Each structure stands twice: as C-alpha cells, then as structure tokens.
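Continued from yesterday's entry.
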Amino acid sequence: MSPLKIKKGSSKHSAYDLKDPNADYIERHTLACVVTNEAGVLARVIGLFSGRGYNIESLTVAEVDHEGHRSRITIVTVGTPAVITQIKAQLERMVVVHDVHDLTEEGASVERELALFKVAGTGNDRIEALRLAEIFRANVVDSTLESFVFEMTGHSEKIDAFAELMRPLGLIEQARTGVAALSRGAK
C-alpha cells in the first residue's frame, strides 16, 4: 500500500508539519509495534507522539502473546516523510518496543475497522436506513421500534461514507475500534 499523500495546506494535516517548510506533502502511515505488555507502556508510546506534537488518527491495542506478555499497537499517523522516519526511529529506540513495522512502506497490507452506529428514525427514514445498511453490508445487531444499531467492518473510508449517509436519517451515536492491520503474504 503506498502512502496516502495529502497536499500541504489541505484540511487533513496538523500544525507539526510546519516544522519542515520545504515538504510539499504529508503522508498517512500505518505502524505496527510489538511491545512488552506491562503497566505504563501504552502511555510511554503515546507520550512520544504527544510530546512532539504528532497526531494519531487511529490507535488499537491488544495482547497478542499471552505467554510472552506482548501486545501489538497499531497506530495510524500522518506526517512528512522526515517526520514519519523520525517517529519510527524514536519508537525503535524505546526499550519496551520489540518490533516496529511501517505497513505502508513494507508492501501490501490489509486494514479493517469495526464500527457501531445507532440510528433512530421512523417511517421512510427507517426503511432507507435499512436499505443503505444492506448495500454497505452492515448488520443489524439491535433493533427497537424507534432505533437500530448497525455493525460494520471495512476500510475507514467505507465507514466514513456510511456515517455520512446515516446522519440525515437519524444517526445519533457511533463507536469505532480504530484500524487493525496486517501485512499480506507469508512473511
């Protein structure tokens, strides 16, 4: 997956990229870090980002090796190529970090996100919400006479599109897991 490039000056960047006035583009990267699963590790990793003014678009964490006490942190962030290189180098220097993979640079990867949407409505809005849910392959996981809760898995862009369509139909709440990602292939 090649990095998503965003023209500098667009609404999809943070103030930190102003540090490099010669950079024309910021890029979206998905980083996968295997860390020691102990108290305070997540705070230290996140502190690296907040302490330097880097933005995190998505963050997921789960233990992946119970016996080895290791967790996987998947971080989606944006920055100039120099900023992304700096983030990776700083993560790799942390003692609690065992591996850092830039899934964006390493080749093809699979990214998915899970979302729940609560949509309240009656009449035609209710019918339209069900019709759109079917098109987007969203599952109804809860239903009352006045609302639905839809569950959807897919790319973040698909979930964003579904949310936009549900807003005028009565979207009242949503919860999202953040991006989970793996590289494709045998390695």
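--- second protein ---
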Amino acid sequence: MRIAVISDVHGNVPALDAVLADMARQQFDAVLCLGDHVSGPMDPAGAAERIMASGAVSIRGNHDRWVVDTSLRGAGAVDRLARETLNEAQLAWLSGLLPTTTLGDELFACHGTPTDDETPWLDNFYNGRSSVLPGEAEVAIHAAGIGAEVILCGHTHIARTLRLSDGRLLVNPGSVGMQLVRGTPDAHYAVIEKRQAGWQTALIGVPYDTEAAARMAEANGFPGWGEAIRYGWAGPDALG
C-alpha cells in the first residue's frame, strides 16, 4: 500500500499545483488531505476546486471550521477572505468534512490531535523562532486508544516522522502552502508505504513559483504572508 499525505494547503494554489504534478508522476493507492485547505490570501477557491477534484480523502482543520463559521474564537482575516471567495458548493464541501478519518484498520488521520484540531502534537509549535520536541509520554498520551499502525497529523507545518516504543508510526507531512521559521520555502508532503519490513516514510519538498504565490498574497492585502512564502524564514507573528 502506498499513500500520499498532504496538509495545510492554506489556499496556496501554486504550491498545491506543484505537489499535485509531482504526485501525478507516481502511483498511489490513496491520497489523504489533513485539513486547513483554503484559509490563506492566495487563491482559496482554486485550492478548494483542486482538492475536491483530486479524489483525496479530506478532513477538516481548525481554519476550515473558522472559514465555515467566522464568528468562532480564533477566526481571522484570512478565514473571512476565504469564506467570501468560496462558492456555495465549496462551502458545503468544507462544512461536511469530518475531524478525523481512517483507512481500514491500519491508518488514522487527524489535523492537530485526535480530540482537538488546535493542539500541536509532534512539535509544541513555535516559541519565537524555536519549536520544542515533546517527549514520548507527551506524544503517546494523545495516541491512547488508537490501534492503527500509522497515525497522521498536520497543523504545525513541521514535517516530522517518529515511532512510539510500541512500534506505531506517527507522521506529519508538513505544509503544502505555508512555510515558517525553518527556511524551507518548498511545498511539502509525505509518502507512506507498507513494505515487507513495515511502514516507511518519505518527507518530500517540492520547489515551486514562490514569487507568484507571494504576489497573490500581497495583492490581497497580506504582505506578511508574501515575505513568509518567498523565503520560509518568517515566524507566525509576521503573518499579521
């Protein structure tokens, strides 16, 4: 079994197109999309259109909730922009997404953690320019009761793979559309594959036209997003 995993597109169509083109040169049994699909100042409707047409098994992230209901705590300007841009069919699709999904008995997928789409899991998000790696006990507590061999999450935009002591594989594919802090502007996704020895992971960075995406963000009134997209060094506080 070979599966592509994407997450956190954030409306960045140039990045998504590059990832989809890279994926099209390969064979996959399934594609999973882990949420935060459209909330970004590039092309929210274009991102929704492509993800809906891709046949990916998609779940919702925190920003997807906020786009559907911009009155919720946490919703911001990019969520309101996305909602204004989406058509009725795209909003209905976003509204109908579930917070988690499974593929058979072997894979479980969520956005943040299994119970909270705003909680970071494999990394304790950012403290200024740093992120903190939690210990195994802190990671494992969120995996309690999940019997799947592979557990997928997104949200932090940091590509990472680890194994718990019991052998379960946890994977964050990183972000397709918004890179922060680590100086890697490429669009990121993951490939997981079950081989004779077990599940293995490839974390992939795909170069794309970051200048085009940055100019889209700036044209929509979000200069901080433009700077982050071009270089991947900005922190989340710079997005505005």
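The chain has a mean pLDDT of 95. The first helix runs from residue 13 to 24. Will compare against the first tomorrow.
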